[in-house]
Amino acid sequence: MQIITGSTGDGTGASIMNNSLNITPEAVIFAVLTLVLGYIIAKIIVRWTKRVLRRQGHMTEVAAGLLGRIISILLYIIVILIAVSFLGVDVNGIVLGLSAIVGLVVAFGMKDTVNNFAAGIWIASMNLFDKGEEVTIAGHWGFVQEIGIMATQITAAGSNIITIPNGQVWNDSIINYTRNPERRIDQSFGVSYESDMTEVVHITLSIAREHPKVLDTPEPAVIFSEMGDSSVNFTLRCWTKTPDYYGTRADILRSLHAELTAAGIEIPYPHVDVAFRNAIPEKTENKFEV
């Protein structure tokens, strides 16, 4: 069976286009066999590829699965194009159209890739942070684990690894806590309203000045922060070497609790005091006559 479609012009000799589809029983059989065999072969190739990638350890299971799906889609497209070519369809136009679509998709996808790559170069050239430094990047706190070409990884509390695209790193704020050799400790605490505030300041300054890792310059200071709902709040500010920050801060916190408690100064905590301002009247007997 041969299907012929054509268009003729007028008698002035306009061009004639004849397009034919050779839909013969043999062509249909070859097309169906191509689809079936191609599908089976594509499945075998994808399964083998995923198994090799996981066995070699080059990719995680998720990455191998994603790559397998991409390969399978490409193979299915090739099989379909081969099958329809047996029916006499010119696949050159289809290939060109698919190439244009794929190129457009890749161009949009590569926009973020190029942005992340360029941002990675700027981050590395400006030396904004280094591996092991404590930072806050785009609102995420942690220690720098790796500075990659496309993304930066930081390790947060609980050993959670946070991956941030370099484009987001470059376009957001970066706080580096460990770049300077010295770091300030801001330790807030509260005491009850009945406490002797002068004694509180004296005890707090003594704790800071007597600690061996607290620097003399800048001099420690106690700042009156605010009068809260149930406490008078202070902030102790002192400086120490950056590697000694967390240990010194923990020592100061323990000393504040121990020495303020020993001096009889109450460190309030959330609780509720109920006061009865009016005495409860005595019960009186009421007599009712029926």
Summary tags:
6 helices, elongated, 290 residues, 10 strands
Structure description:
With 290 residues, the protein is an alpha+beta fold. The chain is built from six helices and ten strands, in the order E-E-H-H-H-E-E-E-E-H-E-E-H-E-E-H. A five-stranded antiparallel β-sheet has the order 6-5-4-3-7. A three-stranded antiparallel β-sheet has the order 8-10-9, with helices on one face. Strands 1-2 form a two-stranded antiparallel ribbon. Strand 3 and strand 4 form a beta hairpin. Helix 5 runs antiparallel to helix 6. The radius of gyration is 38 Å and the shape is elongated.
Q: How many β strands by DSSP?
A: 10
Proportion of beta-strand residues: 15-25%
Q: Roughly how many Å is the radius of gyration?
A: 38 Å
* Terminal-residue CA separation: 114 Å
Instruction: Name the overall outline.
Output: elongated
Number of helices: 6
Order of helices and strands: EEHHHEEEEHEEHEEH
Main beta sheet, described?
A: 5 strands, antiparallel
Mean pLDDT figure: 80
Structural class of the secondary elements?
alpha+beta
Uncertain residue ranges:
1-19
Q: How are the strands ordered across the major sheet?
A: 6-5-4-3-7
Helix proportion of residues, in percent? Answer: 40-55%
Please outline the helices and strands.
Blueprint: E1 3-7, E2 17-21, H1 25-56, H2 61-85, H3 92-126, E3 134-137, E4 140-147, E5 151-155, E6 161-165, H4 166-171, E7 174-176, E8 182-191, H5 197-210, E9 221-227, E10 232-241, H6 245-262
Subcellular location: Cell membrane
Pfam family, one: MS_channel_2nd
Domain Mechanosensitive ion channel MscS: 112-179
